[in-house]
């Protein structure tokens, strides 16, 4: 059996080697073109953002270091920054589609899109894109609003909400700095005062430390879930005067069916609050005291004797 390579085989091997060398040399010389990034802009320069779909839109603007919603409500800076940073260097690789018919199918056209995102800096447009269907986990089809090819970029439509509540700074009603006093006004009124030893007191009342800790935490960790645009229900459910490092703010709770709305005299607007949070704020002084059997056990405990 003859295992000696034939001239045809040797010629084929030589041709393959020459092709590999040619590709390497072309790459070193810049001859192999890498795909351009889908977007490339300075996220820190952005001062305007609009996200929309056929159902609505939301606009944000940067004033100094703070992003705000229309009407002046503070936006969640970290969320805005995270999204802009992700889009600023979005890479799409090579196009996944080039025809207008495919763009329609992927929902990245003027008449059919799931999101439109516009980013501005002064009078300049940094980005104007359509986002459509998802080809996979945390991927979305994208196309420039001016037209062109369709790409698949690392992004998700849920990261670009079209409601004000999607971008709202949820901690905007929290006390500033140290909360030192909570007064519930009205018929169910009581006052809690924080001592220098970081203990909460209510006059001579005996308090359940765990219940008080939970109650105070509802204020210091208060998050709103969304804005509320309807008429406030009557009567007021609970009204509090909170003293912190910035002075005193009045926080008012309203209940509408199973929902709760909160307002503050520090910031204009009406805000929805999770029911399980509001219900633990709407308490009486008796709710912050030990159960009767617990109090009796404490009273009946023998006093320590001196040895």
Outline the structure in words.
The protein is of the alpha+beta class. 23% of the residues lie in helices and 29% in strands. The chain has helices at residues 7-28, 77-88, 100-105, 164-167, 209-220, 275-281, 292-300; strands at 48-53, 56-63, 66-69, 115-121, 124-131, 139-144, 151-154, 181-184, 190-194, 200-201, 224-227, 238-244, 247-256, 259-264, 267-273. The strands form 2 sheets. The protein has an 8-stranded antiparallel beta sheet. A 7-stranded antiparallel beta sheet has the order 3-2-1-4-5-6-7, with helices on one face. Helix 5 (209-220) packs across helix 6. The longest helix has 22 residues, at 7-28. The N and C termini lie far apart (109 Å). The mean pLDDT is 89.
In short:
With 307 residues, the chain is an alpha+beta fold. The protein is built from seven helices and 15 strands.
Architecture blueprint of SSEs:
Blueprint: H1 7-28, E1 48-53, E2 56-63, E3 66-69, H2 77-88, H3 100-105, E4 115-121, E5 124-131, E6 139-144, E7 151-154, H4 164-167, E8 181-184, E9 190-194, E10 200-201, H5 209-220, E11 224-227, E12 238-244, E13 247-256, E14 259-264, E15 267-273, H6 275-281, H7 292-300
Antiparallel strand pairs: 1-2, 1-4, 2-3, 4-5, 5-6, 6-7, 8-9, 8-12, 9-10, 11-15, 12-13, 13-14, 14-15
Main attributes of the structure:
307 residues, alpha+beta, seven-stranded antiparallel sheet, 7 helices, 15 strands, 29% strand, elongated
Measured distance between first and last alpha carbons: 109 Å
- Residue share in helices? 10-25%
- What fraction strand? 25-35%
User: What does the largest sheet look like?
Assistant: 8 strands, antiparallel
Overall pLDDT = 89
Strand order of the largest sheet: 10-9-8-12-13-14-15-11
The SSE order reads HEEEHHEEEEHEEEHEEEEEHH
| Rg over alpha carbons | 31 Å
Low-confidence stretches: none
Structural class, by secondary structure, is: alpha+beta
Tertiary shape: elongated
- Total count of strands: 15
């Amino acid at each position: 059996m003859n295992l000696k390579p034939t001239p045809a085989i040797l010629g084929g091997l030589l041709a393959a080697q020459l092709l590999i060398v040619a590709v390497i040399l072309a790459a070193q010389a810049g001859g192999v073109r890498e795909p351009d990034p889908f977007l490339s802009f300075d996220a820190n320069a952005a001062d305007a953002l609009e996200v929309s779909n056929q159902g609505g839109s939301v606009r944000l603007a940067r004033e100094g270091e703070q992003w705000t919603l229309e009407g002046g409500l503070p936006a969640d800076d970290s969320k805005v920054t995270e999204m802009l940073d992700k889009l600023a260097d979005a890479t799409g690789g090579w196009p996944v589609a080039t025809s207008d018919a495919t763009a329609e199918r992927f929902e990245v056209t003027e008449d059919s899109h799931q999101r439109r995102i516009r980013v501005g800096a002064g009078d300049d447009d940094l980005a104007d894109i359509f986002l459509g269907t998802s080809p996979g986990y945390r991927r979305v089809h994208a196309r420039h609003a001016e037209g062109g090819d369709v790409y698949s970029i690392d992004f998700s439509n849920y990261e670009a909400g079209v409601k004000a509540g999607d971008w709202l700074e949820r901690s905007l009603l929290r006390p500033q700095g140290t909360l030192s006093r909570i007064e519930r006004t009205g018929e169910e009124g009581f006052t809690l005062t924080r001592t220098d030893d970081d203990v909460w007191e209510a006059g001579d009342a005996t308090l359940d430390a765990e219940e008080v800790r939970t109650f105070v935490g509802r204020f210091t960790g208060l998050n709103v879930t969304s804005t509320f645009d309807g008429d406030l229900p009557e009567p007021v459910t609970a009204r509090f005067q909170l003293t912190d490092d910035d002075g005193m703010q009045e926080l008012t709770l309203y209940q509408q069916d199973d929902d709760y709305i909160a307002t503050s005299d520090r910031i204009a607007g009406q805000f929805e609050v999770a029911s399980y949070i509001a219900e633990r704020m709407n308490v009486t002084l008796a709710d912050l005291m030990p159960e009767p059997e617990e109090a009796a056990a404490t009273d009946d405990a023998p006093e320590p004797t001196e040895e």
